[in-house]
Amino acid sequence: MLAQLTAAFRDLQIPLRVKLWDGKQIDLGPTPRVTLVVKDPSLVAQLAHPSLDALGAAYVEGRVDLEGPIEEAIEVGDALSTALLGDEPPPVEQHAAHDKRSDAAAISYHYDLSNEFYRLWLDRDMVYSCAYFETGEEDLNQAQQAKLRHLCRKLRLQPGDRLLDVGCGWGGLARFAARECGAQVYGITLSKAQLELGLQRVAEEGLQGRVTLELLDYRDLPQDGRFDKVVSVGMFEHVGHANLPLYCQRLFGAVKAGGLVMNHGITSRFTDGRPVGRGAGEFIDRYVFPQGELPHLATIARAISEAGLEIVDVESLRLHYARTLQLWSQGLERRLQKAAQWVPEKSLRIWRLYLAGCAYGFQHGWMNLHQILAVKPRDDGGHDLPWTRADLYS
């Protein structure tokens, strides 16, 4: 076994130590920073072709253990996969079938894991989306408040505005918009756990008269243009490529003429929406976001435009999300013992890899995140946006 690994790993010069179940070990570089402890002898053959999916699955299933900082394990794992597989082209995207039942099940799998688990490493408002770093020195609470403020400024929220929050999560943005901007907010989610805690926090802040949160599928949104503004954060990744036109049509139908629509979400690096290569995309689909599909910026922009909305502003927040995920990962790593009280060991292994791996992926440009602001033009083609962006930064 050791000879087989030695032959496969010859001259790699990667700071990794591989330790076998019998105590034998091999160093792939002079100063190993991470140790991969192989517990399953049948895994040795797979290590000669180490896709990120295979490596991640082996860790999740307990066939290997990792010794060393998780962020360094991700970096070393990518180096090992790159060295042995090269720039293997990602597979052609196989689009999942999305209907109300399967989408609700996928959302429940991810978001109904445990409110207490998420509370351990999210900010105090439990905003589970990319934060906004105005200087780069903010802590997580400051950066998430800045993100909520940035969204509301882009939407030019005014007292009395009727705001639709699609995929409202635990209600952090809904409460902020009501509390700080005086908006009347209607938020929808498919997560029962998120709704329960969101309603509790709305009541604790005395916002029942200004914030309404409900379980509702975006396909069932009212289409009478009753909302002045619409915001969707971290939601369209779950819609699926085939349903993007319908999703955008529902947002169009929900907002009044002259109203604004903000779509904030993760976008693919590839114009055809292929997943991340060397198995990273497959790992996320299998263990983290079932049925998740990332469209390229061009794809979602086309769907928005063809629905009748006019795109007026686009901002990339890729490095902001890399920093957000890094802070989330560090927060989870500091609280691993507490986290183990709220989720099974397998789930904890998934989330350790997912948060650290996504931080690495965003940092290295494997995917992006865009805020897209659009307007529903009035019949005369006009709208009420200011001539410049100066008001966003005043």
Topology:
Elements: H1 2-8, E1 16-19, E2 25-27, E3 34-38, H2 44-47, H3 52-60, E4 64-67, H4 70-85, H5 100-111, H6 115-121, H7 140-154, E5 162-166, H8 172-181, E6 184-189, H9 192-204, E7 211-215, E8 227-233, H10 244-254, E9 255-268, H11 280-287, H12 297-306, E10 310-316, H13 318-334, H14 336-339, H15 345-363, E11 367-375
Parallel strand pairs: 1-3, 5-6, 5-8, 6-7, 8-9
Antiparallel strand pairs: 1-2, 3-4, 9-11, 10-11
Pfam families: CMAS, DUF7884
Family: Belongs to the CFA/CMAS family.
Protein name: C17 cyclopropane fatty acid synthase CfaB
Query: How many beta-strand elements?
Result: 11
Total domains = 2
Series of H and E elements: HEEEHHEHHHHEHEHEEHEHHEHHHE
- Quote the distance from N terminus to C terminus: 65 Å
CATH topology of the largest domain: Rossmann fold
Strand order of the largest sheet: 7-6-5-8-9-11-10
Radius of gyration: 22 Å
- Helix/sheet category: alpha/beta
Question: Treating each run of at least 4 consecutive H or I residues as one helix, how many helices?
Answer: 15
Q: What form results from the Cα inertia axes? A: elongated
Organism: Ectopseudomonas alcaliphila
InterPro entries: CFA/CMAS (IPR050723), CfaB-like (IPR048027), CMAS (IPR003333), DUF7884 (IPR057206), MeTfrase_dom (IPR020803), SAM-dependent_MTases_sf (IPR029063)
Pfam families: CMAS, DUF7884
Keywords: Lipid metabolism, Methyltransferase, S-adenosyl-L-methionine, Transferase
